[in-house]
Amino acid sequence: xxxxxxxxxxxxxxxxxxxxxxxxxxxxxxxxxxxxxxxxxxxxxxxxxxxxxxxxxxxxxxxx
Length: 64
Description:
The chain contains 2 helices and 2 strands, in the order H-E-E-H. It is mostly helical and about 60 residues long. It has one domain. It starts with a helix and ends with a helix.
């Protein structure tokens, strides 16, 4: 089974999620989960993690 398409699609999903978190953080948009207001710093952390996972997936997808 070839895992390259899976890694490429996963990287795309992680990139989209990272961009969404970055936009939320840059605009200071509120995010409430239940009664808890998620701090903007959580979106910055999610942005960094999403970018790292996307890079990792792209590197795996480009392996020979």
